[in-house]
């Protein structure tokens, strides 16, 4: 009774704040199987994200038990005289408030809310898994491995939701071969901004299907995804080699991703890399590769501009073909031009490799270094301009200090579908450059939030001044003009048309700051 009273009071506050003409008891009478909560703990959790920079004030949090719960809530927002905003939240790993909403309702897709949203169906015959949109990828992996299967494409961190990564793209070192996660989806169930629950695929409601993939939550909330699977390997040979010359490093990376059409025995399964501008980083980040008693010194390797580059590659295998894996790797490594004697190798179970970042997370949590601001910046950089980016950013703006890994690896554009809502550089090969840094208040000015945020601005300004046409991944902009520039006129027009069709009242994902809700401009989070 007390909970119902609190919820009624919260909805009444919503009416006063937002001004929509909606009976407060109507939300209570939606027939939800899940839970509509105004508990302070739920509101607090939904008011922040991993970025730790923005804060919102949601009025309520829905823990849905079914897709129909989500549809009923969004339909109520769409049908009400003035409406209210609805934002889907996964595991809270947005960086700039993208999954937040103020004076609206957050749909908490992951976590509790009833057993129905935990159902996961696997077809061994057709090699797919039907997954709730709020399921974590680590749980998808655990379930599919019971059948000897696994998804083809991953993100580096598995404690993210299926719907969350598919709303962006979902990338890791497998993307050169299999494409991003959005290229490995057969079918979706989506709740549009009109409150319609629709099944969509290449053949059914295809425009919605392509819009939602990489659509930043603007066109619908993904409640189910049919994910393509493959036979899961048992073990991984994980290799790192070092470079002091950037041109040689990128040539080798580009050569390796050019092998994507070759048989499995003639290519690596994963190609990534990272930039090392700080000697402390090379001996601490994922330090299992490097011996503490014999640390790698940047200065001893004659790095150009004080910067080293690490190529990270893996070869998957089964115990049945373990006797050939060494020879396959040797043939591939002979084609590369890394620093002699800089090869570091380890061998581990497939699941341990995929879940490698979680182990780093646990270490950081134990030191109180996880729940800090994360002013991350992720960029897609055209291959033709990556050398200039290296000179201006890695060897220029960054100096010799950083506070987190800087990833860099190329991808093949032909593995991406231009019909999706993601925009990438207009070149056959482009690079992800990801500045995954943490802001710390430890007395070092170069690790403060203000310093790192200003440095991000410097990087973007450098690209603008040098006319390097980068595209932000997990994009963040403060106004619609910047969003138009991000998409370009052709894709912005398509994006607008899709918004008009699937979320005409601009109810969904207002934290992205792309469209202002048509019913009340003051409700937006900017």
Automatic annotation (TrEMBL):
Claim: Flavoprotein is one of the keywords in the record: yes
Signal peptide from the UniProt entry: 1-21
Superkingdom, taxonomy of origin: Eukaryota
EC number: 1.5.99.12
Cofactor(s), names only, from the UniProt record: FAD
Alphabetical GO biological process terms: cytokinin metabolic process
Molecular-function GO terms, alphabetical: cytokinin dehydrogenase activity; FAD binding
Catalyzed reactions per annotation: N(6)-dimethylallyladenine + A + H2O = 3-methyl-2-butenal + adenine + AH2
Keyword line: FAD, Flavoprotein, Glycoprotein, Oxidoreductase, Signal
FAD-binding PCMH-type domain segment(s): 54-232
Listed PANTHER family: CYTOKININ DEHYDROGENASE 5 (PTHR13878:SF102), GULONOLACTONE OXIDASE (PTHR13878)
Similarity remark: Belongs to the oxygen-dependent FAD-linked oxidoreductase family.
The protein's name in its UniProt record: cytokinin dehydrogenase
Organism encoding this protein: Solanum tuberosum
